[in-house]
Write a structure and sequence with these properties.
This protein has 214 residues and is of the alpha+beta class. It folds into 3 domains: 42 residues; 116 residues, Phosphorylase Kinase, domain 1, CATH 3.30.200.20; 45 residues, no CATH class. The protein is 45% helix and 21% strand. It is built from 7 helices and 8 strands. The strands form 2 sheets. The chain has a 6-stranded antiparallel beta sheet with strand order 1-5-6-4-3-2. Helix 1 packs across helix 4. The longest helix is centred in the first third of the chain and has 38 residues. The N and C termini lie far apart (69 Å).
Length: 214
């Protein structure tokens, strides 16, 4: 027979455990709800375009997902399920250089991970586009989002404009004065201090393939 005091202690313990697990349960519900909405509404092919580049894309006959995915590019990096290519719109001084990131397949694992982190049941490409747009709104220098979308058949893409006068991080880290670990740690510390003192508007985050540029 359970005594009244023991019952109260057990109830208090269960209540404390419930309170401890509440944030986890709420976080777990977020991707589940997002997944259910995705399954029932099943978003098909779509494209979201930065209004600033809409006329440029139209002038090159680029409208739907297939148009973006079929753009001729110079491959700069790649993986089995995705690659990044460099594309040039126009010519001469008015030419615009951009990078097209293509996802050849969209694993459920990626969608679950993105939903778990609060981005919704989306592709890597769409998640990155959300981050880029948010960063520019807060004054962080980063590539301009041009367009993002999916073809409804398991492929996705992200098109971003290249930032001029940037140095590839791989090139910088491979330079003689940053070849040893202490120099790299010093560089990382100085970069962090620059962010803190100067503010994010003075830090440029660029894209060049899957590696960053600064």
């Amino acid at each position: 027979m359970i005594k009244h005091g023991e019952a109260r202690a057990a109830h208090s313990s269960l209540h404390a455990l419930h309170q401890l697990n509440a944030p986890f349960a709420m976080k777990l519900m977020r991707p589940l709800i997002s997944g259910l909405l995705y399954a029932f509404r099943r978003r098909g092919a779509f494209v979201e375009v930065n209004p600033q580049f809409r006329d440029l894309l139209r002038s090159h006959g680029i409208h739907g997902p297939e148009d973006f995915l079929n753009l001729p590019t110079i491959i700069v990096s790649g993986h089995p399920d995705r690659h990044v290519g460099r594309v040039i719109f126009g010519s001469g001084s008015s030419a615009i250089v951009a990078y097209l990131k293509k996802e050849h397949r969209l694993p459920w694992r990626d969608r679950w991970t993105n939903a778990w982190h609060g981005f919704g049941w989306c592709s890597r490409s769409y998640r990155e586009s959300v981050v880029l747009r948010a960063m520019r709104e807060t004054g962080v220098g980063c590539p301009e989002f041009v367009a993002v979308g999916e073809d409804g058949r398991g492929r996705a893409f992200l098109l971003v404009r290249e930032l001029a006068e940037c140095l590839d991080l791989r090139v910088l880290l491979g330079a003689g004065h940053l070849a040893d670990p202490p120099a790299r740690r010093r560089f990382a510390r100085e970069l962090g201090e620059s962010w803190t003192v100067s503010g994010p508007e003075n830090i440029q985050i660029c894209h060049g393939g899957d590696a960053g540029k600064i």
